[in-house]
Amino acid sequence: MIKVVVDRSHAMVNLTADGYVTEADIAAAAVDLHAAIRSLGDRMGQHVTLYDLTNVNVAAGVVLEAFSVFFTDPKYRPIWAKRVAFVTRS
Known about the structure:
alpha/beta, 4-stranded mixed β-sheet
């Protein structure tokens, strides 16, 4: 499961994933994430994003590659965060 929450007071978008994450989960989360970022209006692109993957079980390589779309697809460049943080179990 992946959940996206916006903290408007801090211009922060939090994405929390747990359990086994599938490509379909990531595709749905991408829609939610992009909508959350766009909801920041003028603060879009000046926001920060936290990806909390602490409770994600071991993911298949294809799932990890799907996450990379958040950072590599140039069509999303206008809404990229100015800072990104990942939290993992390591």
